[in-house]
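User: Reviewer 2 asked us to show a designed sequence for the structure in our supplementary figure. I'm pasting the C-alpha cells here. Could you produce the per-position amino acids so we can include them in the response letter?
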C-alpha cells in the first residue's frame, strides 16, 4: 500500500512545479502549497481507499489504472469543494477564474504521477501479486 503514498508525494512535487507561475504573488503560492499539502493528503487517503477496493475485487491492471485516474479527478474536486466551504467566508478570491488553475494543476499532477507509476500499479494488480498479497494476509 505504499504506491498511493509514492504517487501523492510525486504529485505534490509536480503540483509545486506547475504552480510556480503563482510566485508572482508569493502569498497565494504559499497558501496554495499549504492547501495542496493538507487537502492532497485527504485526497491521497481517498485514492488509497479506491486502490484497496480495486485490490480486493481483483481488478485487472487496465481497469484499475482507469479507475484510479478517474478517482484523482473526483478526489481533487471534493477536496477543492471542501476548501471553498472552509475558506469562502474569509477569502473570496478562490472563486476568481484565475484560481481554477489550482485544481486543474492538481488533477494534472495526479495524472502525471499515476502515469509515472503505471508499471508499479500494473505489477501490483497482476495475478501473481494478488496471490502473494492474499497469502501474506491469510496467514
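Assistant: Here is a per-position design you can include in the supplement:
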Amino acid at each position: 500500500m505504499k504506491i498511493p503514498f509514492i504517487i501523492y508525494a510525486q504529485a505534490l512535487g509536480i503540483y509545486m512545479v506547475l504552480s510556480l507561475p503563482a510566485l508572482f504573488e508569493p502569498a497565494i503560492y504559499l497558501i496554495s502549497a499549504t492547501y495542496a499539502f493538507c487537502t492532497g493528503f485527504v485526497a491521497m487517503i481517498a485514492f488509497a481507499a479506491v486502490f484497496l477496493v480495486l485490490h480486493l475485487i481483483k481488478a485487472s491492471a487496465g481497469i484499475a489504472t482507469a479507475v484510479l485516474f478517474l478517482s484523482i479527478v473526483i478526489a481533487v474536486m471534493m477536496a477543492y469543494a471542501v476548501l471553498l466551504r472552509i475558506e469562502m467566508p474569509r477569502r473570496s478570491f478562490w472563486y476568481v477564474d484565475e484560481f481554477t488553475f489550482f485544481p486543474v494543476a492538481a488533477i494534472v499532477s495526479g495524472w502525471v504521477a499515476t502515469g509515472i507509476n503505471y508499471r508499479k500499479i500494473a505489477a501490483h494488480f497482476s495475478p501473481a501479486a494478488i496471490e502473494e498479497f492474499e497469502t501474506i494476509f491469510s496467514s
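For the response letter, you might also mention the following. The radius of gyration is 17 Å. Residues 2-138 form one domain.
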